[in-house]
Amino acid sequence: TIYPPESITARQSRSTIRNACNLMAIAEIEEIGCAVCGQLALTKNMSPLKSIKNLLTVLHSNRNTRQSRSSLNEKIQEIDGPVLAQNCDSVCNLCRSKLRLGEIPSLALANNLWIGEVPDVLSRLNFIEQILVSRVRHNTNFIKVNAGYRKMIAHCISWENPTAKMFN
Question: What is the pTM of this model?
Fold first, then answer.
């Protein structure tokens, strides 16, 4: 190898900048939520939810969803229809392919993963407030394996938060 390397030409410079700009284009980095699993995915890898509306019957779930209540006296009511993330009108390719096979995707909200809409009061909490209201603190460790894959160490540590002790 020659040291120092030769400087790049103006053409190579323009090509490098053009390729970098193409990789940073909105279509390459914009993400939206999947209505079935609730996970973020690239917009270019999503399909409209209305294209599979006839396949959503497998996502109907009994006793997984409840309408929000403002008092304990209100009757508990289930939400009718398929279990979907609200305000999402697209579905990721992984969920779409599973639904086309008539299967429930493993990460679908209908697999007892639905928690409902997060109230505004909770969505605006800062980090310290989140720690104070959480019931459990957890820590998971990952190590990198030589082949480039990730592997979880065989334990997960969780501690109950002593919230009552903090306030008394």
Answer: 0.63
